Amino acid sequence: MKTRICATAVLLLVTAACATTTPRRQFDDIPLPTGLTYQPERSVVIESPSVKAAQLVYRGRLEPASLGDLMRTRLESNGWRPVSRTTTATDGTWQVYEKDSNALEVHIYEGLWYTYLAISVSETLLPATADTKDGALQRATLNASIDPPATPESGTASDRPTRSGDPTFTRRVKDFFTNLFSW
């Protein structure tokens, strides 16, 4: 009987150890160290035609100071320019980077059992291109104004555009993540 219980316990432990999720590879120029597990319930990804933003959370059993140095080295080798670095005893380490008008924030902190790596990133996507008559590519332009109209629109709520059709929605998402990285 004890052998059967021990075998079941070992089988459950092995199954639980193999059930880790793979890292989310949304942003190819952000290298992730091995030994971290992606936490989908703590992460969020926002995508629109012109902006992709995310907060991706990982956890592992790594030393926070070593993880911070490793992330700094890997990000700088991939072209990310450091903007600031702050470390406090209670909140961990915050590192802010920029690259090609994209913003990246790395937050490393300790939980009860794990070290957490939270990566907040926003990426401006290239506008769509269209073929011209002579075969050359030409950038498509958006003919909508980004600023809201000077006078309020009248009409019922059903007449107003939905959030996804609002041309300022993309700008608001981009501003949100830009302001998220400034203190």
The general outline is: globular
The whole-angstrom Rg is: 22 Å
Number of helices: 3
What is the first-to-last residue Cα distance? Answer: 61 Å
Helix content: 10-25%
Order of helices and strands: HEEEHEEEEEEH
Q: What structural category arises from helix and sheet content?
A: alpha+beta
What average pLDDT do the residues reach?
73
How many β-strand runs? 9
Report the biggest beta sheet as strand number plus sense, adding barrel if it closes: 7 strands, antiparallel
Describe the oligomeric state of these chains in a short phrase. Answer: single chain
| Low-pLDDT stretches | 6-24, 137-165
Topology at a glance:
Layout: H1 2-18, E1 36-38, E2 44-47, E3 51-60, H2 64-77, E4 81-88, E5 92-99, E6 102-110, E7 115-124, E8 129-131, E9 137-139, H3 167-180
Antiparallel strand pairs: 1-3, 2-3, 3-7, 4-5, 5-6, 6-7, 8-9
Characterise this structure.
Strands 1, 2, 3, 4, 5, 6 and 7 form a 7-stranded antiparallel β-sheet that branches. With 183 residues, this protein is an alpha+beta fold. It is built from 3 helices and 9 strands, in the order αβββαββββββα. Mean pLDDT is 73; it is low at 6-24 and 137-165. It has helices at residues 2-18, 64-77, 167-180, and strands at residues 36-38, 44-47, 51-60, 81-88, 92-99, 102-110, 115-124, 129-131, 137-139. 25% of the residues lie in helices and 32% in strands. The protein has one domain: TATA-Binding Protein (2-Layer Sandwich). A hairpin with a 5-residue loop joins strand 8 and strand 9. The termini are far apart.
